[in-house]
Amino acid sequence: MEWREQSPVSCDEAYLEAQRWIEVSKNFLSSEFLLINKIKPGVIKRVNRLPTPIAGLDNLNVFLKACGKLGLKEAQLFHPGDLQDLSTRVTVKHQETNRRLKNVLITIYWLGRRAQCDRSYDGPYLNLKAFEGLLGTALYKVNSS
Questions:
Q1: What are 14-69's pLDDT values in tens digits?
Q2: Which long-range contacts (CB under 8 A, 24 or more apart) does 41-48 make?
Q3: InterPro entries from the xrefs (predicted)?
Q4: Which of 31, 58, 98, 126 has its CA 20 to 30 A from that of 17?
Q5: Hey, what long-range contacts does 115-123 have (CB within 8 A, 24 or more apart)?
């Protein structure tokens, strides 16, 4: 799912809801790994616990592959580069940072939606309505039925 470059919609509400949902655990990937295994046990068999950038990238790829195994489409997934730290770059535009954040939020939306569709899932629920502005009212209404 691509968001529109010229969208005037703020992602603040979606960001706050995603943050609330993720903060059930302190580490984004750890909590997302647990969430994925609650939806479909055994999808994630290993987590690289080394404190290195390569381990983080490895875990990110494991996470994205697991999302695919849960049925999320490639267009619903952010790119690993979307989580790259841009704070030290002088020429980064606000639009680029906002685009990357929206891509991550879109993945969180689809993962949360997938969790809520699973009858055996008993974890925290994501307030999908908070993502309405980010994804568009029409998309939310079509997908919530």
A1: 888 777 766 643 455 666 777 788 888 888 888 888 888 888 888 889 999 999 99
A2: 43/69, 43/70
A3: CH_dom_sf, LMO-7
A4: 58
A5: 115/35, 115/38, 115/39, 118/39, 118/40, 121/38, 121/39, 122/38, 123/24, 123/34, 123/35, 123/38
Which CATH number characterizes residue 34's domain? Answer: 1.10.418
Query: Which structural domain range is residue 54 located in?
Result: 16-135
Instruction: Report the mean per-residue pLDDT for the chain.
Output: 77
Provide the percentage of residues in the chain whose pLDDT is more than 90.
20
Radius of gyration of the chain (CA): 15
Residue 128 covered by a domain: yes
